[in-house]
Protein backbone atom coordinates (compact mmCIF):
# COMPACT_ATOMS: atom_id res chain seq x y z
CA UNK A 1 0.00 0.00 0.00
CA UNK A 2 1.36 3.44 -0.87
CA UNK A 3 0.78 6.98 0.28
CA UNK A 4 1.82 10.34 -1.12
CA UNK A 5 4.15 12.75 0.60
CA UNK A 6 1.52 15.47 0.14
CA UNK A 7 -0.63 13.68 2.73
CA UNK A 8 2.05 14.36 5.32
CA UNK A 9 2.67 18.09 4.81
CA UNK A 10 1.78 19.39 1.40
CA UNK A 11 3.05 22.93 2.01
CA UNK A 12 6.64 21.82 2.65
CA UNK A 13 7.22 19.57 -0.34
CA UNK A 14 8.01 20.10 -4.02
CA UNK A 15 4.76 19.28 -5.93
CA UNK A 16 4.77 16.04 -7.88
CA UNK A 17 3.73 17.75 -11.16
CA UNK A 18 6.06 20.76 -10.89
CA UNK A 19 9.03 20.86 -13.26
CA UNK A 20 12.56 20.47 -11.90
CA UNK A 21 13.62 23.17 -14.40
CA UNK A 22 11.09 25.73 -13.15
CA UNK A 23 13.74 28.37 -12.40
CA UNK A 24 15.26 28.32 -15.90
CA UNK A 25 11.78 28.25 -17.47
CA UNK A 26 10.78 31.34 -15.46
CA UNK A 27 13.87 33.16 -16.74
CA UNK A 28 13.04 32.15 -20.33
CA UNK A 29 9.47 33.38 -19.80
CA UNK A 30 10.79 36.80 -18.77
CA UNK A 31 12.86 36.89 -21.96
CA UNK A 32 9.91 36.06 -24.22
CA UNK A 33 10.92 32.55 -25.25
CA UNK A 34 8.80 30.27 -23.04
CA UNK A 35 5.06 30.81 -22.69
CA UNK A 36 4.17 30.20 -19.01
CA UNK A 37 0.44 29.71 -19.76
CA UNK A 38 -0.62 26.11 -20.21
CA UNK A 39 -4.13 26.81 -21.50
CA UNK A 40 -5.00 28.86 -24.59
CA UNK A 41 -6.67 31.82 -22.93
CA UNK A 42 -6.16 35.57 -22.99
CA UNK A 43 -2.82 35.42 -21.17
CA UNK A 44 -1.59 32.75 -23.58
CA UNK A 45 -2.33 34.82 -26.71
CA UNK A 46 -0.99 38.06 -25.17
CA UNK A 47 2.28 36.27 -24.48
CA UNK A 48 2.29 34.83 -28.01
CA UNK A 49 2.00 38.39 -29.37
CA UNK A 50 4.89 39.44 -27.13
CA UNK A 51 6.95 36.49 -28.42
CA UNK A 52 6.24 37.38 -32.06
CA UNK A 53 7.33 40.97 -31.42
CA UNK A 54 10.48 39.76 -29.69
CA UNK A 55 11.38 37.32 -32.46
CA UNK A 56 10.49 39.48 -35.50
CA UNK A 57 11.19 43.04 -34.38
CA UNK A 58 14.08 42.56 -32.00
CA UNK A 59 15.82 39.35 -33.03
CA UNK A 60 15.57 39.41 -36.83
CA UNK A 61 16.18 43.16 -37.14
CA UNK A 62 19.24 42.85 -34.92
CA UNK A 63 20.60 40.11 -37.20
CA UNK A 64 20.07 42.31 -40.28
CA UNK A 65 21.70 45.25 -38.52
CA UNK A 66 24.83 43.25 -37.63
CA UNK A 67 24.95 41.98 -41.22
CA UNK A 68 24.92 45.57 -42.51
CA UNK A 69 27.66 46.54 -40.04
CA UNK A 70 29.78 43.58 -41.18
CA UNK A 71 29.37 44.57 -44.86
CA UNK A 72 30.33 48.17 -44.05
CA UNK A 73 33.27 47.25 -41.78
CA UNK A 74 36.30 49.45 -42.33
CA UNK A 75 38.97 46.87 -41.47
CA UNK A 76 39.48 43.11 -41.06
CA UNK A 77 39.38 43.27 -37.25
CA UNK A 78 36.02 45.00 -37.21
CA UNK A 79 34.71 42.66 -39.92
CA UNK A 80 35.73 39.51 -37.98
CA UNK A 81 34.11 40.88 -34.83
CA UNK A 82 30.81 41.63 -36.57
CA UNK A 83 30.82 38.29 -38.41
CA UNK A 84 31.37 36.50 -35.10
CA UNK A 85 28.40 38.30 -33.57
CA UNK A 86 26.33 37.55 -36.66
CA UNK A 87 27.08 33.82 -36.41
CA UNK A 88 26.13 33.85 -32.73
CA UNK A 89 22.86 35.71 -33.37
CA UNK A 90 21.83 33.39 -36.21
CA UNK A 91 22.53 30.31 -34.10
CA UNK A 92 20.65 31.88 -31.17
CA UNK A 93 17.68 32.69 -33.42
CA UNK A 94 17.52 29.06 -34.56
CA UNK A 95 17.56 27.90 -30.94
CA UNK A 96 14.78 30.36 -30.05
CA UNK A 97 12.60 29.10 -32.91
CA UNK A 98 13.35 25.53 -31.78
CA UNK A 99 12.11 26.02 -28.22
CA UNK A 100 8.97 27.80 -29.49
CA UNK A 101 8.11 25.25 -32.17
CA UNK A 102 8.95 22.17 -30.08
CA UNK A 103 7.22 23.33 -26.90
CA UNK A 104 4.94 20.20 -26.70
CA UNK A 105 7.93 17.85 -26.94
CA UNK A 106 9.81 19.77 -24.26
CA UNK A 107 6.75 19.66 -21.97
CA UNK A 108 6.74 15.90 -22.45
CA UNK A 109 10.37 15.70 -21.33
CA UNK A 110 9.64 17.81 -18.24
CA UNK A 111 6.71 15.55 -17.38
CA UNK A 112 8.72 12.34 -17.74
CA UNK A 113 11.26 13.59 -15.20
CA UNK A 114 8.49 13.34 -12.58
CA UNK A 115 7.47 9.81 -13.61
CA UNK A 116 9.88 8.08 -11.22
CA UNK A 117 8.25 9.78 -8.21
CA UNK A 118 4.92 8.14 -9.05
CA UNK A 119 6.09 4.56 -8.44
CA UNK A 120 6.42 3.00 -5.01
CA UNK A 121 9.71 3.69 -3.25
CA UNK A 122 11.29 2.96 0.12
CA UNK A 123 12.51 5.64 2.52
CA UNK A 124 16.13 5.04 1.41
CA UNK A 125 15.19 5.66 -2.24
CA UNK A 126 13.17 8.71 -1.28
CA UNK A 127 16.02 10.21 0.73
CA UNK A 128 18.55 9.47 -2.00
CA UNK A 129 16.25 11.01 -4.63
CA UNK A 130 15.84 14.15 -2.51
CA UNK A 131 19.61 14.61 -2.33
CA UNK A 132 20.24 13.89 -6.02
CA UNK A 133 17.44 16.10 -7.40
CA UNK A 134 18.24 18.91 -4.96
CA UNK A 135 21.85 18.88 -6.17
CA UNK A 136 20.75 18.77 -9.82
CA UNK A 137 18.32 21.67 -9.37
CA UNK A 138 20.95 23.70 -7.54
CA UNK A 139 23.55 23.01 -10.26
CA UNK A 140 21.09 24.08 -12.98
CA UNK A 141 20.17 27.25 -11.09
CA UNK A 142 23.80 28.18 -10.41
CA UNK A 143 24.74 27.55 -14.05
CA UNK A 144 21.85 29.72 -15.29
CA UNK A 145 22.76 32.59 -12.96
CA UNK A 146 26.50 32.29 -13.65
CA UNK A 147 26.22 32.41 -17.45
CA UNK A 148 23.71 35.29 -17.22
CA UNK A 149 26.06 37.32 -15.01
CA UNK A 150 29.08 36.52 -17.18
CA UNK A 151 27.26 37.53 -20.37
CA UNK A 152 25.92 40.74 -18.84
CA UNK A 153 29.44 41.73 -17.78
CA UNK A 154 30.68 40.95 -21.30
CA UNK A 155 28.10 43.29 -22.86
CA UNK A 156 28.87 45.97 -20.28
CA UNK A 157 32.50 45.91 -21.38
CA UNK A 158 31.53 45.57 -25.07
CA UNK A 159 29.35 48.68 -24.93
CA UNK A 160 31.99 50.51 -22.92
CA UNK A 161 34.35 50.03 -25.88
CA UNK A 162 31.59 51.14 -28.29
CA UNK A 163 30.94 54.25 -26.17
CA UNK A 164 34.66 55.00 -26.03
CA UNK A 165 35.01 55.10 -29.83
CA UNK A 166 31.56 56.35 -30.85
CA UNK A 167 32.27 60.08 -30.23
CA UNK A 168 28.71 60.40 -28.85
CA UNK A 169 27.26 59.82 -32.34
CA UNK A 170 24.16 57.62 -32.58
CA UNK A 171 25.02 56.52 -36.11
CA UNK A 172 28.15 54.76 -34.77
CA UNK A 173 26.05 52.61 -32.43
CA UNK A 174 24.58 49.26 -33.55
CA UNK A 175 21.10 50.73 -33.10
CA UNK A 176 22.09 53.57 -35.42
CA UNK A 177 22.68 51.20 -38.33
CA UNK A 178 19.95 50.19 -40.80
CA UNK A 179 17.43 48.61 -40.62
CA UNK A 180 17.20 48.89 -36.82
CA UNK A 181 17.57 52.68 -36.88
CA UNK A 182 14.30 52.99 -38.82
CA UNK A 183 12.42 51.34 -35.94
CA UNK A 184 13.67 53.77 -33.29
CA UNK A 185 13.56 57.55 -33.77
CA UNK A 186 16.23 58.53 -31.28
CA UNK A 187 17.95 61.87 -30.84
CA UNK A 188 19.46 61.48 -27.37
CA UNK A 189 22.72 59.54 -27.36
CA UNK A 190 22.40 58.13 -23.83
CA UNK A 191 18.86 56.91 -24.46
CA UNK A 192 20.03 55.26 -27.69
CA UNK A 193 23.00 53.45 -26.15
CA UNK A 194 20.88 52.35 -23.17
CA UNK A 195 18.20 50.85 -25.43
CA UNK A 196 20.92 49.26 -27.55
CA UNK A 197 22.50 47.68 -24.48
CA UNK A 198 19.18 46.36 -23.16
CA UNK A 199 18.18 44.84 -26.54
CA UNK A 200 21.57 43.26 -27.18
CA UNK A 201 21.82 41.91 -23.62
CA UNK A 202 18.27 40.49 -23.77
CA UNK A 203 19.13 38.61 -26.97
CA UNK A 204 22.30 37.25 -25.40
CA UNK A 205 20.51 36.24 -22.21
CA UNK A 206 17.79 34.39 -24.12
CA UNK A 207 20.52 32.40 -25.88
CA UNK A 208 22.60 31.48 -22.83
CA UNK A 209 19.50 30.72 -20.75
CA UNK A 210 18.32 28.37 -23.50
CA UNK A 211 21.76 26.76 -23.31
CA UNK A 212 21.23 26.53 -19.54
CA UNK A 213 17.90 24.80 -20.19
CA UNK A 214 19.60 22.25 -22.47
CA UNK A 215 22.31 21.82 -19.86
CA UNK A 216 19.64 21.40 -17.16
CA UNK A 217 17.95 18.63 -19.13
CA UNK A 218 21.23 16.75 -19.39
CA UNK A 219 22.00 17.27 -15.69
CA UNK A 220 18.60 15.88 -14.71
CA UNK A 221 19.00 12.92 -17.08
CA UNK A 222 22.21 12.18 -15.19
CA UNK A 223 20.23 12.54 -11.93
CA UNK A 224 17.62 10.05 -13.15
CA UNK A 225 20.40 7.61 -14.02
CA UNK A 226 21.85 7.98 -10.52
CA UNK A 227 18.45 7.21 -8.99
CA UNK A 228 18.00 4.27 -11.35
CA UNK A 229 21.39 2.79 -10.41
CA UNK A 230 20.58 3.22 -6.72
CA UNK A 231 17.23 1.44 -7.14
CA UNK A 232 18.77 -1.38 -9.20
CA UNK A 233 21.40 -2.16 -6.56
CA UNK A 234 18.64 -2.53 -3.96
CA UNK A 235 16.07 -4.25 -6.17
CA UNK A 236 16.84 -7.69 -4.70
CA UNK A 237 15.82 -6.66 -1.16
CA UNK A 238 12.87 -8.51 0.36
CA UNK A 239 12.46 -6.42 3.53
CA UNK A 240 12.73 -2.77 4.47
CA UNK A 241 15.89 -1.43 6.11
CA UNK A 242 15.33 0.82 9.08
CA UNK A 243 16.26 4.41 8.36
CA UNK A 244 19.12 5.74 10.50
CA UNK A 245 18.97 9.01 12.40
CA UNK A 246 21.83 10.39 10.27
CA UNK A 247 19.85 9.73 7.08
CA UNK A 248 16.79 11.46 8.50
CA UNK A 249 18.84 14.45 9.62
CA UNK A 250 20.63 14.69 6.25
CA UNK A 251 17.31 14.45 4.41
CA UNK A 252 15.88 17.34 6.43
CA UNK A 253 18.51 19.66 4.91
CA UNK A 254 17.43 19.14 1.30
CA UNK A 255 14.25 19.76 -0.70
CA UNK A 256 11.41 17.35 0.07
CA UNK A 257 9.79 16.05 -3.10
CA UNK A 258 6.21 14.84 -3.18
CA UNK A 259 6.15 11.18 -4.16
CA UNK A 260 4.45 7.83 -3.71
CA UNK A 261 6.19 5.92 -0.92
CA UNK A 262 5.79 2.67 0.92
CA UNK A 263 4.57 2.52 4.48
CA UNK A 264 7.53 2.50 6.88
CA UNK A 265 6.72 -0.85 8.44
CA UNK A 266 9.39 -3.49 8.91
CA UNK A 267 6.77 -6.23 8.49
CA UNK A 268 6.14 -5.16 4.90
CA UNK A 269 7.60 -7.63 2.40
CA UNK A 270 9.14 -6.39 -0.84
CA UNK A 271 8.80 -8.14 -4.17
CA UNK A 272 12.22 -8.11 -5.92
CA UNK A 273 10.67 -8.87 -9.30
CA UNK A 274 8.31 -5.92 -9.00
CA UNK A 275 11.18 -3.65 -7.98
CA UNK A 276 13.33 -4.81 -10.90
CA UNK A 277 10.47 -4.34 -13.39
CA UNK A 278 10.01 -0.80 -12.07
CA UNK A 279 13.72 -0.21 -12.71
CA UNK A 280 13.36 -1.47 -16.29
CA UNK A 281 10.35 0.79 -16.80
CA UNK A 282 12.33 3.71 -15.36
CA UNK A 283 15.15 3.01 -17.80
CA UNK A 284 12.64 3.02 -20.66
CA UNK A 285 11.43 6.45 -19.56
CA UNK A 286 15.01 7.76 -19.57
CA UNK A 287 15.45 6.40 -23.10
CA UNK A 288 12.25 8.18 -24.10
CA UNK A 289 13.63 11.47 -22.73
CA UNK A 290 16.79 11.09 -24.80
CA UNK A 291 14.81 10.10 -27.88
CA UNK A 292 12.72 13.28 -27.69
CA UNK A 293 15.82 15.32 -26.86
CA UNK A 294 17.55 14.01 -29.99
CA UNK A 295 14.48 14.75 -32.09
CA UNK A 296 14.45 18.37 -30.92
CA UNK A 297 18.16 19.19 -30.66
CA UNK A 298 20.05 16.63 -32.74
CA UNK A 299 20.18 18.79 -35.89
CA UNK A 300 20.70 22.00 -33.89
CA UNK A 301 23.73 20.81 -31.92
CA UNK A 302 25.83 20.14 -35.03
CA UNK A 303 25.88 23.77 -36.26
CA UNK A 304 26.32 24.80 -32.61
CA UNK A 305 29.59 22.86 -32.40
CA UNK A 306 30.66 24.22 -35.80
CA UNK A 307 29.93 27.79 -34.73
CA UNK A 308 31.84 27.25 -31.48
CA UNK A 309 34.88 26.06 -33.45
CA UNK A 310 34.67 29.06 -35.80
CA UNK A 311 34.16 31.56 -32.95
CA UNK A 312 37.08 30.27 -30.90
CA UNK A 313 39.31 30.35 -33.98
CA UNK A 314 38.28 33.84 -35.10
CA UNK A 315 38.42 35.37 -31.62
CA UNK A 316 41.83 33.75 -31.02
CA UNK A 317 43.16 35.21 -34.27
CA UNK A 318 41.53 38.54 -33.46
CA UNK A 319 43.31 38.67 -30.09
CA UNK A 320 46.66 38.23 -31.84
CA UNK A 321 45.96 40.81 -34.58
CA UNK A 322 44.55 43.43 -32.23
CA UNK A 323 47.37 42.88 -29.74
CA UNK A 324 49.94 43.47 -32.48
CA UNK A 325 48.12 46.70 -33.33
CA UNK A 326 48.38 47.90 -29.74
CA UNK A 327 44.60 48.02 -29.07
CA UNK A 328 44.15 46.71 -25.53
CA UNK A 329 40.36 47.20 -25.50
CA UNK A 330 39.91 45.14 -28.64
CA UNK A 331 42.13 42.40 -27.23
CA UNK A 332 40.06 42.20 -24.05
CA UNK A 333 36.77 42.09 -25.99
CA UNK A 334 38.10 39.24 -28.14
CA UNK A 335 39.44 37.43 -25.06
CA UNK A 336 36.11 37.59 -23.20
CA UNK A 337 34.27 36.55 -26.37
CA UNK A 338 36.61 33.55 -26.74
CA UNK A 339 36.10 32.55 -23.10
CA UNK A 340 32.32 32.76 -23.59
CA UNK A 341 32.49 30.45 -26.63
CA UNK A 342 34.70 27.97 -24.74
CA UNK A 343 32.32 27.92 -21.74
CA UNK A 344 29.34 27.31 -24.03
CA UNK A 345 31.17 24.46 -25.78
CA UNK A 346 32.29 23.00 -22.46
CA UNK A 347 28.71 23.04 -21.12
CA UNK A 348 27.36 20.98 -24.01
CA UNK A 349 30.24 18.50 -24.01
CA UNK A 350 30.28 18.12 -20.22
CA UNK A 351 26.51 17.53 -20.18
CA UNK A 352 26.81 14.73 -22.72
CA UNK A 353 29.83 13.30 -20.90
CA UNK A 354 28.11 12.99 -17.50
CA UNK A 355 25.23 11.08 -19.14
CA UNK A 356 27.70 8.74 -20.85
CA UNK A 357 29.63 8.09 -17.62
CA UNK A 358 26.57 7.58 -15.41
CA UNK A 359 24.78 5.32 -17.91
CA UNK A 360 27.91 3.16 -18.09
CA UNK A 361 27.52 2.50 -14.35
CA UNK A 362 24.08 0.90 -14.78
CA UNK A 363 25.51 -2.46 -15.82
CA UNK A 364 27.74 -2.45 -12.72
CA UNK A 365 24.70 -1.60 -10.57
CA UNK A 366 22.91 -4.63 -12.02
CA UNK A 367 25.86 -6.89 -11.21
CA UNK A 368 25.93 -5.42 -7.68
CA UNK A 369 22.35 -6.56 -7.03
CA UNK A 370 22.25 -9.92 -5.25
CA UNK A 371 20.65 -11.62 -8.23
CA UNK A 372 22.25 -14.97 -7.42
CA UNK A 373 20.04 -15.28 -4.31
CA UNK A 374 16.80 -14.65 -6.17
CA UNK A 375 14.46 -16.89 -8.16
CA UNK A 376 14.66 -17.78 -11.84
CA UNK A 377 12.18 -15.06 -12.86
CA UNK A 378 14.33 -12.35 -11.28
CA UNK A 379 17.48 -13.71 -12.93
CA UNK A 380 15.80 -13.84 -16.33
CA UNK A 381 14.70 -10.21 -15.90
CA UNK A 382 18.27 -9.33 -14.97
CA UNK A 383 19.46 -10.85 -18.26
CA UNK A 384 16.91 -8.79 -20.18
CA UNK A 385 17.94 -5.62 -18.36
CA UNK A 386 21.63 -6.28 -19.02
CA UNK A 387 20.94 -6.58 -22.74
CA UNK A 388 19.26 -3.16 -22.65
CA UNK A 389 22.12 -1.36 -20.89
CA UNK A 390 25.03 -3.04 -22.66
CA UNK A 391 25.96 0.20 -24.45
CA UNK A 392 26.18 3.57 -22.63
CA UNK A 393 23.78 6.37 -23.56
CA UNK A 394 25.30 8.89 -25.96
CA UNK A 395 24.12 12.39 -26.83
CA UNK A 396 25.37 13.31 -30.29
CA UNK A 397 25.40 16.38 -32.53
CA UNK A 398 23.73 15.52 -35.82
CA UNK A 399 24.59 11.88 -35.29
CA UNK A 400 28.21 12.67 -36.23
CA UNK A 401 29.95 13.88 -33.07
CA UNK A 402 29.38 12.66 -29.52
CA UNK A 403 29.05 15.30 -26.82
CA UNK A 404 31.90 14.24 -24.57
CA UNK A 405 35.20 15.32 -23.05
CA UNK A 406 37.01 13.88 -26.07
CA UNK A 407 34.99 16.05 -28.47
CA UNK A 408 35.69 19.13 -26.33
CA UNK A 409 39.42 18.43 -26.47
CA UNK A 410 39.35 17.79 -30.23
CA UNK A 411 37.51 21.03 -31.00
CA UNK A 412 39.93 23.08 -28.90
CA UNK A 413 42.86 21.37 -30.64
CA UNK A 414 41.41 22.15 -34.08
CA UNK A 415 40.69 25.74 -33.07
CA UNK A 416 44.30 26.21 -31.92
CA UNK A 417 45.56 24.72 -35.19
CA UNK A 418 43.24 27.02 -37.13
CA UNK A 419 44.55 30.10 -35.31
CA UNK A 420 48.15 29.05 -36.01
CA UNK A 421 47.45 28.50 -39.73
CA UNK A 422 45.56 31.80 -40.13
CA UNK A 423 48.32 33.67 -38.30
CA UNK A 424 50.92 32.25 -40.68
CA UNK A 425 48.78 33.26 -43.65
CA UNK A 426 48.40 36.75 -42.18
CA UNK A 427 52.17 37.05 -41.73
TrEMBL record:
Keywords: Cell membrane, Membrane, Olfaction, Receptor, Sensory transduction, Transducer, Transmembrane, Transmembrane helix. Its main location: membrane. The keyword rRNA processing does not apply. It comes from the Eukaryota. It is a multi-pass membrane protein. It is found in: Cell membrane. The chain crosses the membrane at residues 20-38, 50-71, 142-161, 182-206, 296-320, 332-356. GO terms for biological process: signal transduction. One of its GO terms (molecular function) is odorant binding. InterPro entries: 7tm6_olfct_rcpt. One of its GO terms (cellular component) is plasma membrane. Belongs to the insect chemoreceptor superfamily. Heteromeric odorant receptor channel (TC 1.A.69) family. This is Odorant receptor. It comes from Fopius arisanus.
Amino acid sequence: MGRTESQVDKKKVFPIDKSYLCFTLNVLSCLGIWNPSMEKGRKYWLYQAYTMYYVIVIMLLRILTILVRAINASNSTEFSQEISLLAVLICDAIKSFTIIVHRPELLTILGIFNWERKILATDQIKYYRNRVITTAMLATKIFTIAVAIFLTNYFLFYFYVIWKYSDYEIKKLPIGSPPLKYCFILTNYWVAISIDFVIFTALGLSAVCHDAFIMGVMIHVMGQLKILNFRVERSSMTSLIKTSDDEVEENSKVIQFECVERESNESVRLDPNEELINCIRHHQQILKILEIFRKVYNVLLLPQLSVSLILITISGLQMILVKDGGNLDGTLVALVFCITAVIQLFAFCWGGNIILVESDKTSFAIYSAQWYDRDIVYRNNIKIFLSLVRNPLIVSAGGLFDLSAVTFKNILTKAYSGVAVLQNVQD
